[in-house]
Specification:
The protein has 399 residues and is of the alpha/beta class. The chain is 39% helix and 18% strand.
Length: 399
């Protein structure tokens, strides 16, 4: 018999009742160091006093009014995001998939609005993940995720990451734009090369295409910059955000330059819950922290500390791990042993990581993680690696 909660996830047998900072406690009293952060979402950690206070105070006033009326909290958030980014305007929604769905619509609408309605196709990249709606599944292009859902939404062409020749070859008379994650999270912490991002900007300018960036996982301070594309010194025309934007409260956003954004006029796109007072109060509280002049520098330093420790780990346990990937606090360990084996060892040591493609385990602690907790996590990783090595040796001996 099917359970009341649909079994769409292979859930670990862990139930958490409270958290503090980078730590979580289960209902049976076990403590875990959270290096998954709710899939890079709990950006300020658990029970952050400033975020909790902002949500509680707003909930005590008004949580939801709909977008039929002005929402001052949304207006403030949009202004702050615009001031801190390449964008001229923002649209708020509820999730990363919804943000990417809106981004796709915005690309197509901008082409139609400038007399180029035949341009509706978007070039995407192998290994991408853009969401679970029908259109974002098509943009993702993963056959496993598409299986069983009928005809694939038309309009997406997939090419290898970091291959500019393939990008140029895919551009045709129906191409509207390009959509890329600066760092593929679900795909295995695979980074777009700096020059590749610069070349994408140049080719979009050359052919009059729209450059879209999916920063759902890599944005909001995760790499030590507010947005990951800033490392390459280029800017998109439109960008999706979610996950860490509101510290764990459900929210997404689309940021866009005026030539793209102006085509979404009243009635062309909408949302019931998106950008409501409570969500925007949470996101404004997160921005209070991220926009502190010193904060992103601390993220960069903590990321360097964790990465250095991971490099040492890989060198010591080359039979367990192959390489370190990523930047800032968006890091991955490519494993030589199966993910399941490594993850079981991590859980046994009290450390939470997140699986990704290419046999990679993502390590994405809260941006507020203490240096002592980074060191504790590295100790757990070393102990887990020793467990894996011993288990592999026992397996060989039993053969």
């Amino acid at each position: 018999m099917i359970p009341a909660l649909m079994p769409t996830y292979n859930r670990a047998d862990l139930a958490f009742e409270r958290g503090e900072g980078s730590w979580l406690w289960t209902v049976d009293g076990r403590r875990f160091l959270d290096f998954g952060a709710g899939i890079a979402t709990s950006s300020l950690g658990h029970a952050n006093p400033h975020l909790v206070r902002a949500i509680a105070e707003q909930a005590g006033r008004v949580m939801h009014v709909s977008n039929l009326y002005r929402v001052p909290q949304a207006e403030m958030l949009a202004a702050r995001l615009v001031e801190s980014s390449f964008a001229d305007s923002a649209f708020f929604c509820n999730s990363g998939a919804e943000a990417n769905e809106g981004l796709i619509k915005m690309m197509r609408k901008a082409m139609a609005g400038t007399g180029r309605g035949e341009r509706y196709r978007i070039i995407c990249f192998e290994g991408a993940f853009h969401g679970r709606t029908l259109a974002t599944l098509a943009a993702t292009g993963n056959a496993k995720y598409l299986d069983g859902f009928g005809p694939v939404v038309d309009g997406f062409d997939h090419v290898p990451l970091n291959n500019m020749n393939a990008v140029r070859a895919a551009i045709g008379p129906h191409t509207a734009g390009i959509l890329i994650e600066p760092i593929q999270g679900e795909g295995g912490i695979r980074a777009a090369e700096t020059q590749f991002l610069r070349d994408l900007r140049a080719v979009c300018d050359e052919f009059g295409l729209i450059l879209g960036m999916d920063e759902v996982q890599s944005g909001m301070g995760r790499t030590g910059r507010l947005f990951a594309h800033e490392h390459a010194g280029v800017a998109p025309d439109v960008m999706s955000l979610a996950k860490g934007i509101a510290g764990g409260f459900p929210m997404g956003a689309i940021l866009a330059r005026e030539p793209v954004a102006r085509h979404l006029v009243a009635g062309t796109h909408g949302t019931t819950f998106g950008g409501n007072p409570l969500a925007c109060a949470a996101a404004n509280a997160v921005l209070d922290v991220l926009l502190d002049p010193e904060f992103l520098g601390t993220v960069e330093r903590k990321g360097a500390r964790l990465r250095a420790g991971l490099v040492t780990l890989v060198a010591e346990f080359a039979d367990v791990f192959e390489a370190v990937r990523g930047m800032g606090l968006l890091l991955g360990l490519k494993c030589r042993l199966p993910q399941a084996t490594v993850n079981a060892a991590l859980l046994a040591e009290g450390l939470l990581g997140i699986n990704a493609g290419e046999n990679v385990i993502r390590l994405m602690p809260p941006l507020t993680v203490a240096e002592a907790d980074i060191d504790a996590g590295l100790d757990m990783l070393h102990r887990a690696a020793r467990r894996c090595r011993a288990s592999a040796a026992a397996g060989l001996a039993a053969q």
